[in-house]
Design a protein that fits this description.
Largest sheet: 6 strands, mixed
Radius of gyration: 32 Å
Number of helices: 20
Number of strands: 27
């Protein structure tokens, strides 16, 4: 087998003279496609914050782009090798298959991005056609060849290629979007299992029968071919059972199929373990493949556990999203890079010395790289702070880029060496102490990244110079040598108990148990604190020796103002501090520390001037309402913390949906389906509540932690302009700091108009410049500023427009969180008023009536229509005049 793979340890024909053979040129050319997709994957990873549907794009550039090309290319190469027809995998038919495949992949990605399902359909058809043609070619190749020892490998490839069109068809159905109930989750799991475990998994398993011992530079174990022959039916049966259960049955019925698939891998993998025991892996390629296999094993076990422990496919869909990174980056990407690391030098050729030199070029610092990759990936899938997860993701991206750079350099040097007839110096084999040193270096890099990321998780905390071990007069307290341990539980945004008594001089240890639904911590004024802990988790705070009363609180923004405060009261001689009935009496102290963002020290409220004009070139937010297109509306809303100017010279750090406040406008009709994926790229927990949908809030409206996502699906059954907003406590603060938007659902038979605008009214409770909203002002309902569409008086400086005689419809939503609205157009009269799902006024009534305001309570909305007969500037305001004077003012310019 090693001869057939052109291994550097093979015994066979003497190496050809230096030069670029057609075989080498072909492989270098087609593998450049794989490298190009990997480079695109790296670019998407670097820019994912700025791209819509970034997670979907990352997965599909890797799996549909790089991996599918690699599978077609290398399965063709190995099939031709084991069947002793090495020239069969080149030429016009093979090139045409690759062109068809890549055109289809580009069409699928482009169609999904532009929302054009027919393009997705055509693209998926091209991908399926290319892979089907590949399967037909494999069958024809098998019939041409003489019987061989390892023809079983080709059967794996054929079975894998036969499965991909089914997976592509499921993907097309999901892209159409007209699905209800739990069908999307069922189809997604079936789609993923067919493509990952079938198309990719069977190909990898078939390849490792011969590639694994070649990587180890050892003989194929006795019985390897027989084990592969026995494993294939088990793998196919397990996969078929799991997919059938996913489509037709409850989740627990799919678990045995996953277990059977894993058992098939065990059957096939027993010889691989024997081969590794006979010859310990000593290369990047072998260890990368081995690490990937471990990630696959762990993912299959976790998948089976998820399926066994829930009866809801929607819950399965949410939980299995955690397996994407382990399967894509942990298993598939590592196997792909390991295979490229081994096979590219072989393809470059030039003799054993040249192959070893090229291999050494690709294996630079490989122990450190593999350690960084797997340790960082492990941290990414664990419940770590979001900043740590981001840092580890960057490390993963850097290791991929480093490999791509090494690959490019190795290819260039190999081609130059072949032209010059030199192979380069003979590389030395990595010594054990160098391997251990590389592992230690990789661990150190990850540990530094974790430490740096943890330090970057800045939380507002007033730290006093005095320690807890002083009495009220500042003198040192005498330690008693005793420890007081208390159990404190988080329940419904409260610490229970809210205060504890500690004897003077005792050491205090607090065992904190979070039984709430959000992330919390406990901070004492001395600086002692717990980590932020997820629901259901525990943490310990060691306050040290205590000699005076102490204040504590939860430092998550707004939680202190919601009453999450804690008191330590010292008892015994020498205690001068007066007891407090409830530490909430002091909850307003240090409010400037709890705004959740470091400001620049000045008050944003002092900088607000209602008469100020923005800089030249100012453009207001486009208030034109988009039209309703399609019946299924899919959108990803990414939570982002964004600095924004909200009035001339006034800047705040807003919590936003997709970087804007208000968030993106969604529009549809009665009967439309909305499928919204919420991704939390913020630093604290967030959620989303769509008033336009009617469904139990427990799951879709739950708070998700940084780095998590959820999918919210509802059917619009009633018309109106509906608010959506973050419902994480304190809800008032999350809304006040920018987390709100509008969903417009047209009433049936809504007539067309000449102009259609949307205005979302909201309040600003300004904190420091570049800081976040002031929680105390929110609680007191004392706004500094009121605005339409997120910027005070913006339409005074960049007016809305219309022409005389045109019919204008203005939708208004009052997002609050606290103030109502009385929308009015100065100089205009409304002949149509639609408020909260019904018409209050329509033209043609016997009364010949009109309306002067659209009165709306917080979180309500509607629209008005009017025609303006004369040219001029028509101010529009809320007729709660103090709010209009705070910025809820604009101009409708008629020409």
């Amino acid at each position: 087998m090693t001869t057939q793979l052109s291994s550097p340890t093979a015994s066979g024909p003497a190496p050809k003279p230096p030069g670029r053979s057609p075989r080498a040129l072909w492989h270098l050319g087609v593998n450049a496609i794989v490298v190009a997709w990997l480079a695109l994957f790296a670019v998407v990873g670097s820019a994912h914050h700025f791209l819509p549907h970034a997670f979907w794009l990352l997965v599909h550039t890797l799996l549909l782009g790089a991996v599918t090309n690699a599978v077609v290319i290398w399965s063709g190469h190995f099939a031709a090798s084991v069947l002793r027809l090495p020239e069969a995998n080149r030429g016009a038919p093979a090139a045409l298959r690759l062109v068809c495949l890549n055109a289809g992949a580009v069409a699928v990605i482009g169609g999904m991005y532009t929302g054009r399902w027919p393009v997705v359909l055509v693209g998926a058809g091209l991908v399926a056609a290319a892979v089907t043609a590949h399967a037909v070619w494999l069958v024809r190749l098998s019939r041409r060849a003489l019987p061989g020892r390892f023809t079983m490998t080709v059967r794996y490839y054929t079975a894998a290629a036969a499965l991909l069109p089914a997976g592509a068809a499921l993907g097309v159905v999901m892209a159409r979007g007209t699905l209800g109930g739990d069908l999307p989750e069922r189809l997604l799991l079936a789609h993923e299992m067919i493509n990952l475990l079938g198309w990719v998994g069977l190909t990898v398993a078939g390849t490792l029968i011969t590639l694994w011992p070649t990587m180890l530079r050892t003989r194929v174990a006795d019985g390897a071919e027989r084990a592969g022959r026995r494993a294939l039916p088990v793998l196919l049966a397990g996969l078929g059972a799991a997919v059938a259960a996913a489509l037709l049955g409850p989740p627990p019925l799919a678990a045995p199929g996953v277990v059977a698939y894993a058992a098939g891998l065990v059957v096939a993998g027993v010889p691989w373990v024997r081969e590794a025991r006979a010859k310990t892996p000593r290369s990047f390629a072998a260890w990368s493949v081995a690490a990937g296999s471990l990630w696959l094993a762990g993912s299959l076990l976790l998948l089976a556990g998820i399926l066994l422990t829930t009866t809801s496919w929607i819950t399965v869909g949410e939980r299995t999203s955690l397996l994407t990174a382990p399967l894509a980056a942990g298993w598939i990407a590592q196997v792909l890079l390991g295979a490229l690391g081994f096979l590219v030098p072989v393809v470059l050729g030039g003799g054993p010395t040249a192959v070893r030199a090229a291999t050494a070029g690709l294996e630079r610092a490989w122990p450190a790289r593999l350690t960084v990759t797997n340790a960082a990936l492990l941290l990414c899938v664990l419940p770590v702070p979001s900043v740590v997860r981001v840092v580890c993701s960057v490390l993963l991206l850097v290791t991929l880029l480093y490999f791509l750079v090494l690959l490019l350099l190795t290819v260039v040097r190999g081609l130059r060496g072949r032209r010059g007839g030199t192979a380069g110096p003979e590389p030395a084999e990595a010594r054990p102490h160098r391997v251990l040193g590389g592992v230690a270096l990789g661990l150190a890099v990850v540990m530094l990244a974790v430490a740096g990321g943890g330090a970057a998780d800045v939380r507002s905390l007033p730290i006093l110079e005095r320690s807890a071990a002083t009495n009220a007069d500042g003198g040192e307290v005498t330690p008693t040598g005793r420890t007081t341990t208390v159990e404190v539980t988080v329940r419904n945004m409260r610490f229970s108990p809210a205060s504890v008594d500690v004897p003077d001089g005792d050491r205090l240890v607090v065992e904190l148990h979070n039984t709430g639904t959000d992330t919390h911590d406990l901070v004492l004024e001395t600086g002692a604190r717990t980590d932020r802990i997820a629901p259901g988790k525990r943490a310990t705070l060691d306050a040290g020796v205590v000699g005076r009363d102490l204040e504590g609180w939860c430092s998550v923004v707004g939680h202190r103002q919601m009453g999450m405060v804690f008191g330590v009261r010292v008892t015994g001689a020498g205690t001068a501090a007066a007891p407090r009935d409830d530490p909430r009496d002091d909850a307003t102290a240090h409010d400037h520390h709890a705004t959740g963002s470091e400001g620049t020290g000045g008050s944003a409220a002092d900088a607000f001037d209602p008469m100020a004009a923005p800089a030249d070139g100012f453009t207001a937010r486009d208030a034109r309402l988009p039209s309703a297109e399609g019946r299924v509306h899919q959108r990803t809303l990414t939570v982002k913390e964004a600095g924004a100017e909200v009035a001339p010279g006034v800047r705040q750090t807003l919590w936003t949906f997709d970087g804007t406040a208000p968030g993106p406008v969604l529009r549809g009709r009665v009967g439309d389906t909305f499928e919204i994926t919420l991704v939390n790229d913020g630093t604290i927990g967030h959620s989303v509540d769509f008033h336009a949908g009617s469904l139990a809030p427990d799951e879709p409206m739950r708070t998700i932690r940084p780095g998590e996502s959820l999918t919210y699906r509802f059917k619009a059954t009633r018309s109106g302009v509906w608010m959506y907003h973050c419902s994480t406590m304190p809800m008032s603060l999350h809304i006040a700091n920018g987390m709100f938007g509008a969903v417009v659902v047209d009433p049936p038979g809504l007539p067309g108009v000449d102009r259609e605008y949307l205005l979302v009214q909201s309040e600003f409770y300004l904190g420091e410049q570049n800081g976040t909203a002031d929680p105390a002002k929110v609680n007191a309902k004392e706004p500094d500023m009121v605005a339409f569409n997120g910027y005070a008086n913006q339409y005074d400086h960049d007016p809305l427009t219309a022409r005389t005689g045109e019919r204008v419809r203005i939708w208004v939503l009052t997002a609050g969180p606290n103030m109502p609205s009385a929308f009015h157009v100065v100089g205009g009269q409304f002949d149509t008023v639609f408020r909260e799902g019904a018409y209050d006024l329509r033209p043609g009534g016997a009364e010949h009536g009109g309306a002067q305001i659209l009165d709306l309570a917080p979180a309500s909305g509607g629209f008005v229509e009017l025609t303006l007969p004369e040219a001029g500037d028509y101010p529009f305001v809320t007729h709660i005049m103090s709010d209009a004077e705070r910025g809820a003012h604009g101009i409708l310019r008629v020409r």
